[in-house]
Amino acid sequence: MSTKDLFVDCECGVRTAVSAGMAGSTLTCRCGQTIALPALGELRHIAGRDRHVTNAAELVNKAINSGRLPGTTCVFCERPSSREIRCEVVCESSAQKQTFLGEQGDLLASFLRILFPLPSVSASDEPQTVGHNTIVRPVIRLCHSCQATLGNPRETKTLRKLMDMVPEYSKLFREYPYAEIHFVNATE
After folding, report:
1. How far apart are the C-alpha atoms of 172 and 73, rounded to whole Å?
2. Within a 10 A sphere around the Cβ of 108, how many other Cβ atoms?
3. End-to-end CA distance of the chain
4. Which of 33, 81, 88, 137 gets the highest tally of CB atoms within 10 A of its CB?
5. pTM for this prediction
6. CB 81 within 8 A of CB 143
7. In what helix (H) or strand (E) does residue 181 lie, and over which residues does it extend?
């Protein structure tokens, strides 16, 4: 959700746009009245959004878990279809960050331990995990005749084309433009 989607209304009738970071604080309306801003979940609710969904990946997972997605029809022709294409979308992934300090780093750490006898000063070469994994496992319904028209759903290009036909999945790729798509399986 973008910041422009959040707002509060003053008793005087003026609507003021607010940012997520302003949640829980106060602001002064141009009429002079002080407005207490609610918690972020409530600001989202006022804006007509889910209180707890903060990104497209959460939106897609919630729709899948609730049974709203994948629906019951082919994404292309909208005829009833029980055939499912399952895939995995890696939106973000964690990485290992390696620090190589070598002999100079060991010497510096030894010197710092003498000056500052703190246990946290170290020249460790242990890798550090940065970031986190955000993975979505969408399901797409595609009938046999449409698959013949569109091509092999195992190909990334075809999967992306199919997923762009579903608004929630399309939003996922707008928010995570470098997401990786992987075919998992197809059911009949």
Report:
1. 20
2. 13
3. 36
4. 81
5. 0.62
6. yes
7. strand 180-187
| pLDDT tens-digit series, residues 73-128 | 999 999 999 999 999 999 988 877 665 555 566 666 666 777 776 655 444 556 67
Tens-place pLDDT, residues 50-72? 888 778 898 899 899 999 999 99
Contact indicator for 135, 91 with CB cutoff of 8 Å: yes
Q: How far apart are CA 15 and CA 17, in angstroms?
A: 7
CB atoms within 10 A of CB 19: 12
Q: Give domain limits for the chain.
A: 3-46, 56-94+131-187, 98-129
H helical segments located in 72-143: 102-115
Longest CA–CA separation in the chain, Å: 74
- Among residues 10, 152, 164, the alpha carbon closest in space to that of 179 is found at 164
172 phi and psi angles, rounded to 5 deg: -55, -45
